[in-house]
Amino acid sequence: NNCKASGYKVTVLVVDGLNAPKALLRDDGASASTTENVKMKATAAMLYNRPSGPAQPPPPGQAAPPATIPGTMNAQGGVPIKWGEMTIGAVAVSGAPGGDKDAVCANAGIAKVADKLK
Question: What integer pLDDT is reported at residue 66 of this predicted model?
């Protein structure tokens, strides 16, 4: 996958339309915190029905605002899985050096199965 090819040690979580876990994969070497982070990123993507993280990235050196719903994380890396306009699940990645790279990895995973979502 995209993250592995880049040498990132990540955890990936796929959830269904009810935010129930369908698959969790953690690379050897991925920190334990990544397992909790992916849960919060996936939950944010499902509840807000958009990619996790701030709608507009904050200016350099400024922290992202805290999440507004308990159990969510205001960091990039959670991406809704869509079938047409309907959200049918989400994929979340944690462990790459930055949420922007987590998001790239999550989107690459969705792109690999996009033809099956039509």
Answer: 62
